[in-house]
Amino acid sequence: MNQLAFFQEAIFQLTSSQNPEVGIGHLFRLLQQKIPLDTVLLQIYDPGLSTMRILRVRTQSDIFKMDKVVPLHANELGDWKTWLREGSVRRIDQASKDLFMVRLLETLGMKIGASDKSCLIVQLHAEQTVTGNICLMADGLSRYTDGHVEIVKMLANPIAIVTHLYLSLQKQIKMTKSVIEENRFLSNELRSVAGEDIIGADSGLKDVIQMVEHLANVDTPILITGETGVGKELIANLIQKTSSRRQGPFVKVNCGAIPDSLIDSELFGHERGAFTGAVARKIGRFERADGGTIFLDEIGELPLQAQTRLLRVLQNQNVERVGGVESIPIDTRVIAATHRDLPKMIQAETFREDLYFRLNVFPINVPPLRYHKQDIPALVHHFIHKKANTMNLPVVPSLAPGAVDPLLAYDWPGNVRELENIIERAIILYRATPIRFDFLLPSMSSCVCTTIDEIKPLDVVVRQHILSVLKVARGKISGPGGAAELLGVHPNTLRKRMDKIGICYKKRR
């Protein structure tokens, strides 16, 4: 193949894909037919910091996406600028004799092998400025001839153009991701403005709201405690909304919903090849929350190993990805929440005491609904309007006289979440008439116990309640108007609970 034909083929390979990185890969394989070539590096020059950033490493068997910085010392910077004026390609016959190449090879480590290298460095010009270089490497000494240099010089400008397009594409992708994150944040803000207010802020939850106000301009770790369904996440949302970090990301993590084997990867990220299936680098939740807040819901569900790593993050304000060796500094505020009794877990050695003290700098306990029943009428009004909007009802349902009385008599073991579910069931049942709760929950008032002798086992109370709902649903479990829909649970979940407490649902089919 003569030079003209080779040049034409090289241009064809470079432009064979809309993705510049694919085109550079095709050129890599073509060049291997003409010159010794084992490794290609893409480096970007940062004149402000006088450094070279390694972005990509391509070997015969793999591609590594990197972001490593190699500083240019003062004497090296002068030499580097000199050879840039002398020609577009620099030949190095023995990399171990060049100070910059020595540090470059040390940075790459095991990725390209330990043997000495021969190098051709192609300077990249874009818009009449030097943006970086492509470094071609071959194992061994003095592998490149003047003829090899001429071949690479011939391709210097096309490579620079395609590389500039590749960098522009990466910048565009980064900007697009930034816009998506900003839109997500603005959407959350709009939802907050549209009605995610705290019901009871001026009455039953007044003390909690006052504590939140104290946290507006500090970055202290916060531990929110309270029973299931009291609204711990709403309090975390309010803290973020009123804090100095409200413009930053707000990353939520349910620690109880992530398998133990993946918790480290989810929280702290992982490097490519860190474990089976890690085909690419993954940014962890803590890094995503940099400059903002991370909300660790159900913190009591974290395994001990993850607790140890979390403690280190809180102490040092940096993370290490799984399989990585670098410490990545972060600026992330931590809000944790749990319904578990952490002091008892500490005694049982299932929760670290030092992590508890780190998180418990400013504790907030959200009281259960039975301790602020004065907020129930306002909550009922709020949920009726919310559900009517969600269900696209033409008219907001009204309440029958005295409808709220049974709700005020109930003890609410499921708290606000249970109240919301009961209101939704009532709206489904009483579509054409004012909403009532006495028929839907006939055993509510009997659940209020005044003496120890009146206390019933939980399974007995649950059994009575399920039987009453089955009576309303005429024995139907699944489908529209079935007991599962009325109770707000999956039919299989209800069947398992009925099996456990001895309700024979098969006879009811």
From TrEMBL:
Listed A to Z, the keywords are: Activator, ATP-binding, DNA-binding, Nucleotide-binding, Transcription, Transcription regulation
| Signal sequence residues | none
Q: Which domain of life is it from?
A: Bacteria
InterPro entries given in the database record: AAA+_ATPase, AAA_lid_NorR, GAF-like_dom_sf, Homeodomain-like_sf, P-loop_NTPase, Sigma_54_int, Sigma_54_int_dom_ATP-bd_1, Sigma_54_int_dom_ATP-bd_2
Q: Where is the Sigma-54 factor interaction domain?
A: 198-428
The Swiss-Prot or TrEMBL record annotates one GO molecular function as: DNA binding
Known CDD domains for this protein? AAA
Q: What Gene Ontology biological process does one annotation of this record name?
A: regulation of DNA-templated transcription
Matching PANTHER family, A to Z? PTS-DEPENDENT DIHYDROXYACETONE KINASE OPERON REGULATORY PROTEIN-RELATED (PTHR32071:SF117), TRANSCRIPTIONAL REGULATORY PROTEIN (PTHR32071)
Q: What is this protein called?
A: Transcriptional regulator with GAF, ATPase, and Fis domain
